[in-house]
Design goal:
single chain; 291 residues; alpha+beta; Beta-Lactamase; 2 domains; 62% helix; 12% strand; rod-shaped
Length: 291
């Protein structure tokens, strides 16, 4: 195995190790950045939902309070307004998901189901959790899901959700006396669940990853060609010339010309030492022949 091949194998091994390590780090950083971007999308969607809830509570409820005593209007409920607006939003972006899921909702459509129920139960068991973040794999793709607990902090909420007797008659007439009651102060009764698709984020990660691998590999190949050329020109070629000369001289042929290496580096020093040794050998041979 030649020196140049050994050099290339060692360099290739170092490159593959470095590429593997840097690829893992690059992928982790890219994924972390993608998740941060998805969380930023969720933060925007949640801020919009909270703004709608606040607008409904402060503007719509007082405006329609008198009418709601005669006929209960779901439009005056902050949760109903936020989810209705998001349903309209999903007409253009169907992959996004927003729901205010509850264990015991007044409106049956808000009932927590399957994985929603699992998250909500986890939030109830751990009241110190401010946000539950999960990556869910579904038949429709992978989703980044953030869930925020909805806790009863305002006693006014219990007006409609403590007992059927204390609730507005119009609400009981619309939804019945069985659901949405028995809520207590400081209890996690529901959760805001927001999901955004990870398909675009994953595609960007892999696209960036492929670009990174391609650029890194291209740079390595370019450096390998350059280093191979420099190794051959500065080391391999001079050493081969001196080896060829040494072989010719060792066979008794003194006509082989000396090889003069132009530089003054280590190979140049070796070349000068080799030539001095050859001249010394020639002088010794001539002295033996004349004796």
């Amino acid at each position: 195995m030649g020196l140049q091949l050994k050099f290339n194998l060692i360099l290739a091994a170092c490159f593959l190790f470095g590429l593997l390590l840097s690829s893992i780090i690059f992928y982790q950083l890219s994924r972390r950045e993608a998740l941060d971007q998805l969380q930023a999308q969720i933060d925007v969607l949640r801020s919009q939902a909270l703004s709608i809830r606040r607008y409904t509570s402060e503007e719509i409820q007082p405006l329609l309070a008198d009418q709601s005593t005669v006929q209960f209007l779901p439009q005056t409920v902050p949760s109903f307004s936020a989810q209705t607006v998001f349903r309209n939003f999903r007409e253009r972006y169907p992959q996004f998901f927003y729901k205010e899921a509850a264990l015991n909702p007044t409106n049956p459509s808000d009932q927590a189901k399957d994985w929603e129920l699992e998250i909500l139960e986890n939030l109830r068991r751990n009241p110190t959790i401010e946000r539950d973040v999960r990556i869910r794999n579904t038949e429709n793709g992978t989703f980044y899901t953030a869930t925020y607990p909805l806790v009863i902090r305002n006693a006014d909420c219990l007006t409609c959700h403590s007992t059927p007797e204390k609730a507005p008659p119009s609400l009981v007439a619309l939804y019945g006396p069985k659901n949405g009651f028995g809520w207590k102060m400081n209890e996690t009764v529901a959760a805001q669940i927001i999901s955004v698709p990870m398909s675009d984020a994953d595609a960007k990660i892999w696209k960036s990853f492929i670009v990174f691998i391609s650029i890194t590999s291209g740079i390595f190949l370019g450096l390998l060609v350059l280093l191979d050329f420099m190794l051959y020109k500065l080391v391999i070629f001079p050493v081969r010339k001196m080896a060829t000369t040494a072989e010719i001289v060792s066979m008794g042929d003194e006509s082989a010309p000396e090889y003069q290496y132009p530089a003054s580096d280590e190979v140049g020093s070796l070349s000068k030492s080799f030539n001095r040794m050859r001249r010394s050998l020639d002088s010794a041979m001539k002295m033996l022949e004349s004796s």
